[in-house]
Design a protein that fits this description.
Pfam family, one: HTH_Crp_2
Low-confidence stretches: none
Mean pLDDT: 85
CATH superfamily of the largest domain: Jelly Rolls
Oligomer: single chain
Structural class: alpha+beta
Number of domains: 2
Keywords: DNA-binding, Transcription, Transcription regulation
Distance between the termini: 7 Å
CATH topology of the largest domain: Jelly Rolls
Organism: Zobellia amurskyensis
Radius of gyration: 18 Å
GO cellular component, one term: cytosol
CATH architecture of the largest domain: Sandwich
InterPro entries: cNMP-bd_dom (IPR000595), cNMP-bd_dom_sf (IPR018490), Env_Response_Regulators (IPR050397), HTH_CRP (IPR012318), RmlC-like_jellyroll (IPR014710), WH-like_DNA-bd_sf (IPR036388), WH_DNA-bd_sf (IPR036390)
Number of helices: 8
Number of strands: 12
DNA sequence: GCATTAATATGGA
DNA sequence: TCCATATTAATGC
């Protein structure tokens, strides 16, 4: 779905772009490094050129709630764009990641002149909102087991499987922080799923064996209509 | 290579 | 939910 970043897809076509892409700033970020701090002022928008990140928000007693994960080609920090002055989220690289950054002024100029880009961005926002609402439901109505399964399906859709394992390495704690539960609960659900031969694990790597069965188990909550 | 720390897995209050 | 502990993986020297 995200074949190349939004910017490249839309902006290489017309002339405005070269000026725009000229003003971008590129930088890299090592695994575990946080490049957006909660509370920092918003000055623009980030795009992931390559790599993977997690987006989170710190709740009470310092527990992090992972809002979403993002793969290469995706946009980061868009919630703060527009009206908000300060980020309400933090973003950390899950592996070595290359990013590019566009300033607010710069981006506003392009949004006003390149309608197909603006339209694409709007679709992206609409999709995010949809997902965000689905997440509220999942947290409030699904059981722990269902939420963990939901997280696994989400990860599979977003990152896919490579060499039989999910193409991203997450700790059990990170699964927990996404599913809104605890590390122990995730470990327990994983063990149960392994017993039923639905998933397998090797160290931190996770393999989904029967994703259609897992999807069926949470299908009554029909969520996973995701980017 | 080994020693130390971090993460995982289970059991139980 | 929280804590204790055994096992296993990752990291530093």
């Amino acid at each position: 779905m995200n074949t190349g970043c939004l910017i490249k897809r839309n902006l290489n076509l017309n002339g405005i772009v070269s000026e725009f892409t000229h003003e971008k700033r590129e930088f890299t970020c090592k695994k575990g490094q946080q490049f957006i701090m909660e509370g920092a002022p918003v000055n623009g928008l980030f795009f992931i050129l390559s790599g993977k990140v997690k987006v989170f928000r710190t709740g009470i007693n310092g527990r992090e709630q992972i809002v979403r994960f993002a793969n290469s080609g995706e946009i980061i920090g868009h919630r703060g764009f527009g009206t908000q002055e300060y980020y309400s989220i933090g973003v950390m690289a899950l592996e070595d990641t290359a990013l590019c950054y566009f300033s607010k002024d710069n981006l506003q100029k392009v949004l006003l002149t390149a309608p197909n880009f603006t339209y694409d961005l709007m679709l992206f926002y609409a999709n995010e909102l949809n997902r965000s609402e689905a997440k509220v439901k999942s947290i409030s109505q699904m059981t722990v087991r269902e939420r963990v399964i939901d997280a696994l399906i989400y990860i599979e859709r977003k990152f896919g499987q490579k060499n039989k394992f999910l193409d991203i390495v997450l700790s059990r704690r990170e699964y927990a922080n996404y599913a809104g539960t605890t590390e122990e609960q995730v470990i327990r659900v994983f063990s149960a799923l392994k017993k039923d031969n639905l998933i397998d694990t090797k160290g931190k790597r996770v393999q989904i064996i029967d994703s259609s069965f897992l999807k069926r188990e949470i299908s009554e909550h029909n969520f996973y209509l995701d980017s």
